[in-house]
Predict the structure.
Amino acid sequence: MRRKISSIALNILLLMLGVITVYPFVWMLCSSFKKNSEIMALEQHLLPQEFILDNYVNMNAHFNFLRFFINSLVVTLVVTVLVVYTSTLCGFVLSKYKFKGRNLIFGFVLSTMMVPWCVTIIPKYSMIQSFGWMDSYKALIIPAMFSGFGIFMMKQHISSLPDEILEAARIDGANEFYIFQRIVFPMSKNGISSIAIFQFLWTWEDFLWPYLVINTQEKQLLAVGLKMFNGQYSTDYGALFAATAISIIPVLLIYLFFQKQFIAGIAASAVKG
Amino acid sequence: MFKKTHPLQSKSEIILRNIVVAAMVIFFSVFLIIPIGIAFAGSFHEWNPLSGTYNFLGLENYKDVFTSGLFGKSMLNTLIFSVVVIIFRVGLGLGIAYAIYSTLIKYKSFFRAVYYMPVVTPMVAVAFVWKFMYNPQIGTINQIFGLDVNWLMNPKTALIAVMLMTIWKDFGYAVVMYMAGLYSLPADALEAAKVDGANAWQTFRYITLPLLKPMTLFVVINSIIAYIQAYVQILIMTEGGPGTATYLASYIIYDEAFVKYNFGYASALSFVLFVITAVFSWLSFRVSGTEE
């Protein structure tokens, strides 16, 4: 009996914390379907009293939000695919090949994760300018092609693959490129999905770098676009809510679909590390 | 040389290895090592890309950093911010993870998934959501609690408001971490405590908590490193204001570098933060080394 009561109490407590956690999202979404007069009204209701879609429709007329969305999607997907591939390849070489200097290189890769963004961003910005990569997606993609975190995670992951499988393939005459593409890559699915998810999120939410290197408005990404939009339409709250919803909802949907992989990935980074 | 120790090493292995190692070394040299060198050199110069100045100053920038009232204030803010947010992050994370882990809760993965939601959402966007929630005109926070506070414009509440938002965004990470830690605890230790007749509190206090210590250190040190680098919520919600109430260390660097274009001074600032981060990273390695 006592057990039952404490179970109910604890469930209610966790549920309340859950409500607090999702409330900002719900409030934002509901507000994005309200008229400005209702958003500013003295007496407020969570659910829209008059449900309208105008905020979404009008927003795109002022400001090409859909364009930002597509730009972000393209850049993020390209960076994610590249990072997954390079991380798996480097992780494979660093975990399954024994050679002189391997630990040194791995230590070097680990130490790259410790460098704060602020140390390298000014020189990287100057370098991109002198390379003539300003205002081009090269500036967003090439400096992001390798990830210290990704290499670290994939090395940990691939070292747990049994050597016997690789040896068997080698005896059958497979070369190393074939082994990587056909054996290591497909067998690293769990590691790959967690890297992909992290990299996707990081690139999607990155603000400062695209803000610095992309000048043309049509080429800009969503996070920067959202800030510009807020600067220009700071009193059109309905549109602001709609713009914010568009930046958050896709990520939340992806999360809800893949939440198991998300959580397994983040937990693995600590337990193994 | 390699052949002797590894008889099975093939030609394709050597080719692949050389390509991969070369690619890594080139990439990290160009986009990390050389930039660190440039920033280090720049920190001794008056460096402004707009006017094209690059004049040697010696240690002047560093002297300015340590005598700057704003830097001192921002370090103090960063300290308060980090300590408060980390206490809540660890406290909530551990408490909630332990509650979910207990046999009293049935829908474990449901709760975990809900708490983790804010962690995966983009910071720029959620910072805007919270900025609107704090807005005295349209915001929901004053509405719910029947308050009349201009959260982000009042120097007394602005930092608290930003910390609250950060706690909301980040506690789920600690929940997931502690749950991973709890599920990898050695079953025999908990079994032994049960056999010895320890009650729930004693088991938690004397078995579970000490066994989770490495995870706590991991979360704390990673949080310190992350909060030294935090600036997006400040940029969106307060821009350091009102006055200097919410200036955080990394926000000053953003401000000096990309608003005022004092690249030299910003580089000096970032090297100071680099050293602080390196000390904590080193600590985290030492700690995880000795724990095992």
